[in-house]
Amino acid sequence: MLVTASYPGIEGKINASISFMTLNQIRANRLNAKRSAGPRSAAGKARSAMNALKSGISAQSQILPGEDPAALEKLSGEFYDYHQPESPAEREVLDNLIHLSWLNRRYRRIDAQLMKYEMDTTYRPSPDCPWGQSFGSASVRFLRLQTRVNAADRAFHRNLDQLRLLEAERPILEADDSAPDPPAESPAAPSTPDLPTT
User: Fold this and answer.
1) Which parts of the chain fold into alpha helices (H)?
2) How many domains does the chain divide into?
3) Which residues, listed in sequence order, are joined to residue 3 by a DSSP beta bridge?
């Protein structure tokens, strides 16, 4: 049900299912909105930028600080050039493959960074076995990371199998009518039996 508002400056129709604000609340909201300049710090601006995430394989939100957007574009181009999807379903599965491949690359970087972090922050690093000591102190974190790697790898292979099935179901194109017909074989000359000579 629509009703006409009688507040000055708020002419028009308002949905009656929404609870009405008082005139003082409306004025206070407008005053606060005029004072707001949005986030001022770099961190606040970064959080605010994530408010309107875009979907899709090329969405900027898939790129984390320190990652190269051109690398994701290259990866996407390679997958699309190789598979050349022909249907929306193939494109969706291919986008999943690209995303999972990107995640696996990210997880490899995280693994290396986690090991470096542990080595740098170990209280008394062992000169004989710093890697083993770092791994031992962060084994729970490495296990969590490996769980995510395994899940992404399984999902990648499931999606790859699904894409192969979809590609196999593509309609077989009819033979092109403009292509010349292959030459007809000439009939073989009848063979004559060998006759005795007299």
Assistant:
1) 23-35, 42-49, 69-83, 88-121, 130-137, 139-168
2) 2
3) 14
Domain span at residue 20 reads 1-36
Rounded to an integer, what distance in angstroms lies between the CA atom of residue 107 and that of residue 178?
Answer: 52
> Rounded CA gap, 131 and 136, in Å?
8
Within 13 Å, how many C-alpha atoms sit on residue 151's CB side? 8
Same domain, 5 and 94: no
18 to each of 1, 3, 13, 68, how far by Cα in Å? 10, 11, 12, 45
How many Cα atoms within 13 Å fall on the side-chain side of residue 103?
A: 19
The per-residue pLDDT for 2 is 44
Same domain, yes or no: 22 and 66 = no
**pLDDT tens-place string over residues 32-87:** 767 766 667 777 666 555 444 334 455 556 788 888 999 999 999 999 999 999 99
Distance CA 193, CA 21 (A): 111
Confirm if 57 and 63 have CB atoms less than 8 A apart: no
Q: Specify burial of residue 42 (Cβ count, 10 A radius: 0-12, 13-18, 19+).
A: exposed
Strand partners, 4: 13
C-beta of residue 181 within 8 angstroms of C-beta of residue 139: no
pTM: 0.55
**132 domain residue, yes or no:** yes
Whole-angstrom Cα distance, residue 133 to residue 38? 46
